[in-house]
Design brief:
heterodimer; A: Beta Polymerase, domain 2; two-stranded parallel ribbon; B: alpha+beta; three-stranded antiparallel beta sheet; 17 helices; 10 strands; globular
Amino acid sequence: MSAPAVDPLLEALAGLGDAVESVRGAGDELTVRVRREAIAEVCAALKGEQGFTALVDLCGVDFPGREPRFEVVYHLLKPALVDPAAARRLRLKVAAGEGAPVPSVTSVWRAADACEREVWDLFGLRFEGHPELSRILLWEGFAGHPLRKDFPLEGTGTGASAAGTDGG
Amino acid sequence: MAEGAGEPLETGAVELSETVEAVEEAEAAVLLAPTPEPDGEAAAEPRGEEVELGFGPQHPAIHGVLRLRARVDGERIIDCRPILGHLHRGVEKVFERTPFADIVPQTDRLDFAAPATTNLAYVGAVERLQGIMAPPRARYLRTLFAELQRIASHLLWLAGHAADLGVMPPFFAALRERDRVLGLFDVYLRQYPGASGMRPGGLSHDLPAGWVEKCRELAGSFPGRLDECAGDLLGSRPWKKRTVGLGVLAAEVAVDLGVTGPALRASGVAWDLRRAMPYEAYGEVAFEVPVGRNGDAHDRCLVRVEEMRQAARIVVQCLDGLPEGPVLAEPPREGGGGSGESFQEVYHAVEGPKGEIGFYLVSEGAAAPYRCHVRAPSFANLQALPEICRGELVGDLVALIGSLDLSLGEADR
């Protein structure tokens, strides 16, 4: 009888100490809450030691009732080519607010560049250490951040006239 | 990514590539004389003065609306920066007010060249959220539709890319073949672009009588017809001269940038969700994952052409193994999971013609998603454009953009 196999990923997460706030879910939906200040180091460790070489997606979610109000969600992928069974996904989350910038993970994966710009554009969250945090889907000069829950679906009617600068 | 990258492939993968030397040798053999120095070469040398060059947003070679701002020195591109958002319609905001089932037709408009695969990614995410599973017959049919869609999307790319590079015959042949594929969707769905047939839990309805025979005829004759379409392009010397060695994307860089799909596999990374994380009926069909070795524009094209062949194989297998039974799980559920303060979340992705198309859904149990984020392959792949443009000639920009097969509808959302 051998002891039940311990998931090396869960072990590694436990080894990250207080950088990890909670671990929930299982399999593809394994979700780890990470302390905001530690997100870049946690990502670097997961990439370097656990093989999560790809950042598949990065997006924001607005929870107006919460403090801090926003969540930034990272979808990581370990693309195991030799042994497909070892491939896995991992979701990381940090709580973020307007006054609480999130450390950028662009130094870990360049894929984060456009994604973090999108979260800034649509949610108004700042990423510390991003090389050029500018709007990406809307234009510079647009008023507001449309994916916030308090931004009206029909728009504010002022955005277009505010287009003064050359987008980019 | 270290493992597997750039090395000879493992089982089940086809390797495709061409070297600059081989093309030049073939060229020399035909010309029987050294190639004269083209006038353009002199202009290509850096002059030490930078000029900013705007490209788009309206340009026939972009097949959408994308603006590029390039810095050039002579004819060399020093840097190129995509400026997107021209097709931004705020669909993620709209999704937050739209009931789960009603979002399906709106996902058609993301990658308009491949609505069925985007549908499939979305309904898969909703099924995961609701904890339901499509019946076996629906899973086979959805696999079949996804592969027909891959063929249609790649044929549209082939037509456009060939025409961009001045090779006209494939344009007409590929569009004619694409029309035959879309004709099958037309017969099934009674609408031409072939979309919105998928439902969370299965499909809207079963196949009409005679459809299987029509599909079998198409899949059987497709490989031969593909040779007719692509042969003119693949055998064309001007095309090879323009694409071999152009816009090389290294495997590690591609993974780091989040590139997926044929553009990633052309760089030698045999990563395909259909193989690595099988969904629908992909675990039960045999197919090969073509990969390139050089990661240049030429390899990206070869990978797509070979993928069409493999897609036709999968279509035939789906028809052969098509189980009987219902095509929609009963009873279909309304709304998502989660309730009140407890939010439920899922991420589900499929291998679309352009790469990993995924949906991240957050639900609080209401009729509409609390948040629906689209992981669009073109948005990520677009980040590789500056990488592959650097150091190339302005005249090759069209070939470089075409080699990535971008869909701005899904990139801008």
